[in-house]
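ESCALATION

Customer reports they have been waiting on this structure for their group meeting. Please prioritize. Original submission:
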Amino acid sequence: MLQLDEDRIRGLLQWDQLIPAMEKALADFSLGRVLQPLRNMLTIEEGSRYLGIMPAVADDVMGAKLVSFYPGNAGSSVATHLAMILLFRPDTGEPLAVMDGRLITEMRTAAVSAAVTKYLAAPDSRVLALLGSGVQAEAHLHALTRVQNFEEIRVWSRTPAHAEHFAEKHGIDAVTLEAAVRGADVIVTATNALEPILKGEWLKPGAHVNAVGSPRPNWRELDDAAMANTLIVDSREAVLKESGDVILSAATIYAEAGEIFAGTKEAPVAATTVFKSVGIAIEDIAAAKLVYDAASC
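Update from on-call: job pushed to the front of the queue and completed.
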């Protein structure tokens, strides 16, 4: 049985393979080809400590992720999300690998956003806004620039020094919140905000939002006006249990991303769109299978 740490995974998991793998995984999910319960999220301490249990089975892969979510770690040397993933052979049940899941979680989240952006953002999108300056903002910067040619990239953070550091590191612009969003073609919200930070009135017609933060049923990043746009989700069932943005706004869900990838729902490319991602197990297991296959070559 393989044991893979984060350093080894970093050399094996590549964006150009991961993005299409996430398309396939979510298409299979929406077509009913994946056996996957809702994530079981254990609250250890409300607002501070959580443990998630995430199993999934597909035709070619079976496994489970255990993920800890400790938002109180923000700003420290310890990541807010840490995880381990176990893989098994689906035909015999034999264990194949155990691997660190932190980087896989980081990259698969951004890869899913990139896949959705490829389908939903305007082809001539040129301005990217990142709300948040942590690991997800950086991962989205890398993933989204694989599918769009941005001429201007902006970043905002609730801690201005963090935004300035991020901007200097990546050669982009640190700006105020509203200035980041106004006129942007693609916006990423990657924060642990408890109340909405993104106002729908700031969005240009035809903009696309990837909302990946605030993963609790009573936390929000987007206001009701933003959520009133065309809404795409990774899992209807999951967002209606886990996403405060969806639950508290009572927004209408147009489609799952996998339905668009599979061609069972039309991509609303002319609309102003919001993709609300809570992250589901098949994304992790499919990404871990990529790592396992690369390590086994």
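Sent to customer with the following note: The two ends are 14 Å apart (CA to CA).
Escalation resolved.
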